[in-house]
Amino acid sequence: MSFQAYLDTIQKKTGKGPDEFRKLAERRGFLRADVKAGEIVAWLKSEFGLGYGHAMAIYSVLRSAVEPPTTQGERLDEHFKGRRAKWRDSYDTIVRKVSVFGKDKPSIKAGDSYLSLLRKGKKFAILKVGVDFLDIGIKLKKDAPVNVRLKEADDWNTMVSHRVRLASPNDFDDEVLVWLKAAYDAAH
Predict the structure, then answer these.
(1) Residue 60 exposure: Cα atoms within 13 Å on the Cβ side
(2) Is the pTM here over 0.70, yes or no?
(3) Using CB atoms within 10 A of its CB, is residue 83 exposed (0-12), middle (13-18) or buried (19+)?
(4) Co-location of 103 and 77 in the same domain
């Protein structure tokens, strides 16, 4: 479910959108940087009957109202901090190689949890950076054959159909590039 879908569901259930929740939170004293997620979730569960995921979506909206905005570059850098820095060269290589797939140069959107690779705004792959791995989620046809490296994504991330886990920066190769190209081609 997309973030917007969460907000739409909340609006249908409560009759309130993000702006109304911001105003309510401000009146209750919750619109401060030191307010913890648990406080917001408890309030939204008890007063509006929201589940955890929907309450966390509103918490995210409230946090964005009190935290200074970050640039895409800053968000990207967060993915490669500390021991995850060893994956930065692999990321740069992936971006360089997918940028020549076609006339529509892919764009990158850095989220909090993963990096999205987009063609004309349509996601064709995601990258999840860990300390000991780099997961590449790829949007292929559901019936695309799996093998030892290319696995079904299952519940790892519902935005993609398949996943490849790189355990070493040297694991990115032409085979992975072929899968990324297929996903890029399908995202038109």
Answers:
(1) 12
(2) no
(3) exposed
(4) yes
Distance in angstroms (rounded) separating the CA atoms of residues 9 and 186: 29
DSSP state of 86: G
3-state secondary structure string, 117-147? EEECCEEEEEEEECCCCEEEEECCCCCCCCC
- The string of pLDDT tens digits covering residues 101-137 is 999 999 999 988 899 999 998 999 999 999 999 999 9
Per the structure, the count of domains in the chain is 2
Q: Does the pLDDT at position 1 exceed 60? A: no
Domain that holds residue 181: 73-186
Based on the fold, state whether residues 51 and 133 are members of the same structural domain.
Answer: no
The length of the chain is 188
- Which of 66, 89, 108 represents a domain boundary (last residue)? 66
- The Cα–Cα gap between 117 and 108 comes to 5
Instruction: Provide CB contacts within 8 A for 41, sequence distance 6+.
Output: 52, 55, 56, 59
